[in-house]
Amino acid sequence: MIALLEVRDLVRDYTLPKQSLLSKPQNLRVLHGVSLSLKQGESLGIVGESGSGKSTLARSVMGLEKPQSGSVTINGKDIYSLGRAELKAARKEFQAIFQDPYGSLDPRHSVRRILAEPVVSLEDATTAESREERIRQVLEAVGLPASAADKYPHEFSGGQRQRIAIARALITRPKLIVADEPVSALDVSIQAQVLNLMMDLQEQFGLSYLFISHDLGVMRVITDRVAVIHLGRIVEEGPTNEVFDNPQHPYTQALVNAVPKPFSGRRKMRVKAP
């Protein structure tokens, strides 16, 4: 099967603030030649501690931060080689869900406008009627009534807001969703509901997830494979249960050993709320 996402030899540097007026700017390398692939319908987890390069990798995959070298190919298209019009057309195929369900939704806009915005921005030929129908469909898919479209983000709980964020990611009918710590800001019981929803949506729509998290328990449940990132390098990769049950790299062993209690569960099992 041809990979939906191919990341090859990705290098990302940041320029550090100058130490003095006459000093030369220094670069900090955050990603050191990262490579990975993801097939259609698969879920790949990127796990590592804060500062390991997880979110930088996610932003680079989304086309939000251009790397110094390397390539990101989604559905056969190298996104950093595309022109503006081609990139606009390609963006329908990959969307993101971010960590903060409060900060990721504009409080000034209704849910209808929040959900319609990606369609208006990325699709040229749509009618008000077709947008309204798609809004109804994605709200229904994430377990919210059509009447939610008339409300504003402050009228919803954190879990409901994240459902709206998921609906916004779904509305362009993408093949790939990059989920950057999508449940870490939620209560544990709400995390379980959102993870179950994401697994249902993956099966319903044939989605692929690039799932970023520091939580090994979450990764155990929702991902097929996992890549462990440490100091900007992938140090171990393989089927999730195999990597966590028998970690080979010392850094992965340290991550697993740091979990207070042995976590259990298998891919595609329902997440139980406490």
How many distinct helices? 9
Largest sheet: 6 strands, mixed
Order of helices and strands: EEEHEEHEHHHEHEHEEHH
Shape, per Cα inertia axes: globular
Q: Averaged pLDDT, please? A: 89
CATH architecture: 3-Layer(aba) Sandwich
Within the CATH hierarchy, at the fold level, what is the topology?
Answer: Rossmann fold
* Strand arrangement in the largest pleated sheet: 6-7-8-3-9-10
Helix content: 25-40%
**CATH homologous superfamily classification:** P-loop containing nucleotide triphosphate hydrolases
Organism: Pseudochrobactrum asaccharolyticum
Subcellular location: Cell inner membrane
Domain ABC transporter: 5-256
Protein name: Peptide/nickel transport system ATP-binding protein
Structure report:
The protein is about 35% helix and about 25% strand. The chain has about 270 residues and is α/β, with parallel strands linked by helices. The chain has one domain: P-loop containing nucleotide triphosphate hydrolases (Rossmann fold, 3-Layer(aba) Sandwich). The strands form two sheets. The chain has a six-stranded mixed beta sheet with strand order 6-7-8-3-9-10, with helices on both faces. A four-stranded antiparallel beta sheet has the order 2-1-4-5, with helices on one face. Helix 4 (about 130-140) crosses helix 5 (about 160-170). The longest helix is centred in the C-terminal third of the chain and has 18 residues, at about 190-205. It is globular and about 50 Å long. The two termini are about 40 Å apart.
Secondary-structure map with pairings?
Blueprint (H helix, E strand, L loop, with lengths): L2 E13 L11 E13 L3 E5 L6 H8 L7 E6 L2 E2 L5 H7 L3 E4 L13 H12 L5 H14 L16 H13 L5 E5 L7 H18 L2 E6 L2 H7 L2 E6 L2 E7 H6 L4 H8 L17
Parallel strand pairs: 3-8, 3-9, 6-7, 7-8
Antiparallel strand pairs: 1-2, 1-4, 4-5, 9-10
Helix pairs in contact: 3-5, 4-5, 5-6
